[in-house]
Design a protein that fits this description.
Elements lengths: L5 E6 L6 H12 L3 E4 L6 E4 L2 E4 H9 L15 H7 L2 H16 L4 E5 L14 H8 L2 E7 L2 H15 L6 E9 L2 H7 L1 H7 L3 E6 L7 E2 H8 L2 E4 L7 E2 L1 E4 L4 H6 L8 E6 L3 H9 L4 E5 L6 H10 L3 E3 L4 H10 L9 H14 L2 H4 L3
Helix pairs in contact: 1-14, 11-12
Length: 349
C-alpha cells in the first residue's frame, strides 16, 4: 500500500461539517496537503466538465495543482455499479491517491454525506479507509443527546476504537458548557477518543449576497462589486413602510430586505437603513433613480421572478456552504479549530 499520511474524514450524518473540519485542520497544521473526494456529491458543471463543489473549494483555497474533476472517481451510483466492481474500485482509489499524494505531507479524503453513503459502490468512508490503509475520524454534530447516540453507535455497532481510527470530532455544539458538564463525562466512559468539541458559531451560518444571488438565479441591478457583503438576516418587507422602519430589526446591520420593485417607499427605506442588499421579487423593476441611488450607496439590488413568499422559502432551503471569497469565515474556522481541537492528537509525525 502507498506509504504516505492520509486521513479519511467521515460523518455520521449529512451537514456535520466535514469540509469545514478539513479546512480548519489544514490551516491549523500548516502542512502541504492533498485532497480527494472519491464519491462526489455537490455537482458543478463548468466548461463541459463535472466536479464536486467541495473539491473545487479546497483546490482554490489551498492552491492545489490538481484539477477538481480528477479528485473524484464518480458521482452517480448507477454508473459506478455498471463500470466498476470492488477490485476495480480499489485500484482506482490507489491510482487517485498516487497522483494526488505526490510530494504532499498529508492527504485528506472526504467521505460522502454520512457513514453509509456509497457502500453499494464500495466508496463509503470505511471501505475507502480500508482500501487505502488510511487513518480516519468521524465528525458528529448537533445537540448533546444526538451526539451521545451517534458516539454510542460507533462504540456498540462498529466496535470502536479499533485499527487506524483516530477518534471523534464533535462539531456545532449549541451550549458547549452544558455539553461538557452533562454529556462529556458519559462520552468519556465509552472509551472513544474525543478530538475536540467545537461550539456552534452563528457567524459560520451567514451567507454572502453573491452566494444567494447565484442560487436564486437573481439578476444584479446595482453594486455588483459588493456581492461579497454578508447577509446576516432576512427581513421580509411585506408590511407598510411606516411599520417596517419602526421595527428595530429593520435597522440591524447585514439585513437582506425582500420586497417588490413597485414598493418604492420600502426600497428607499432599506437603502437609508444601509441594508446589505435588497432582493426584489415578482420580476418588477424599480424606478431608474432608485437603481442609481443603490449604485451610489454600493448596495446590491437583486431581481428574481418568484414572489416574496416563494423566495423566502427558497432562501430557507439553501444549504450554507463556504466559498473561496469568505475570508472572514475561513479565518474564523481556523481560529475555532485551534482553540477547541486537540491538534497534537491529529498531527502526523
Amino acid at each position: 500500500m502507498i506509504s504516505m499520511n492520509k486521513l479519511v474524514v467521515a460523518s455520521m450524518r449529512q451537514g456535520a461539517g466535514k469540509t469545514s473540519v478539513i479546512i480548519g485542520m489544514a490551516k491549523a497544521l500548516g502542512k502541504k496537503i492533498g485532497y480527494m473526494k472519491p464519491f462526489g456529491e455537490r455537482l458543478l458543471y463548468r466548461k463541459k466538465r463535472l466536479w464536486d463543489y467541495d473539491a473545487a473549494l479546497i483546490t482554490s483555497l489551498f492552491k492545489l495543482e490538481e484539477n477538481p474533476e480528477d479528485m473524484s472517481i464518480g458521482f452517480h451510483h448507477a454508473k459506478l455499479l455498471y463500470m466498476l466492481d470492488e477490485q476495480a474500485t480499489r485500484e482506482k482509489l490507489g491510482e487517485l491517491l498516487t497522483n494526488i499524494g505526490e510530494n504532499k505531507d498529508l492527504v485528506f479524503i472526504e467521505g460522502g454525506r454520512d457513514l453509509s453513503y456509497g457502500v453499494s459502490v464500495h466508496l463509503d468512508p470505511l471501505s475507502v479507509a480500508a482500501a487505502l490503509d488510511a487513518d480516519w475520524l468521524v465528525v458528529v454534530s448537533g445537540d448533546g443527546d444526538l451526539v451521545l447516540d451517534d458516539v454510542t453507535f460507533l462504540k456498540k455497532r462498529l466496535g470502536l476504537p479499533a485499527g487506524r481510527f483516530r477518534g471523534v470530532l464533535i462539531n456545532n455544539v449549541p451550549n458547549i458548557d452544558d455539553f461538557r458538564d452533562t454529556h462529556l463525562p458519559k462520552l468519556a466512559q465509552l472509551g472513544i477518543p474525543i478530538l475536540g468539541v467545537i461550539p456552534y458559531e452563528k457567524r459560520l451560518t451567514y451567507r454572502t449576497v453573491g452566494y444567494l444571488a447565484d442560487r436564486l438565479f437573481a439578476k444584479v441591478l446595482s453594486a455588483e462589486a459588493n456581492l461579497n457583503r454578508v447577509a446576516r438576516d432576512i427581513f421580509i418587507g411585506s408590511m407598510s413602510c411606516d411599520v417596517a422602519v419602526r421595527n428595530p430589526l429593520f435597522h440591524e446591520p447585514g439585513n437582506l430586505v425582500l420586497t417588490t420593485g413597485d414598493r418604492s417607499d420600502m426600497l428607499l427605506a432599506a437603502l437609508d437603513a444601509h441594508a446589505a442588499a435588497v432582493l426584489l421579487t415578482n420580476n418588477i423593476l424599480p424606478a431608474p433613480h432608485l437603481i442609481s441611488r443603490a449604485e451610489e450607496l454600493g448596495i446590491p439590488l437583486l431581481l428574481v421572478t418568484a414572489d416574496t413568499y416563494d423566495v423566502a422559502r427558497q432562501i430557507d432551503g439553501i444549504e450554507t456552504l463556504t466559498t473561496r471569497d469568505d475570508q472572514e469565515k475561513i479565518a474564523l474556522i481556523e481560529a475555532v479549530f485551534r482553540k477547541h481541537v486537540d491538534l497534537a492528537a491529529l498531527d502526523f509525525a
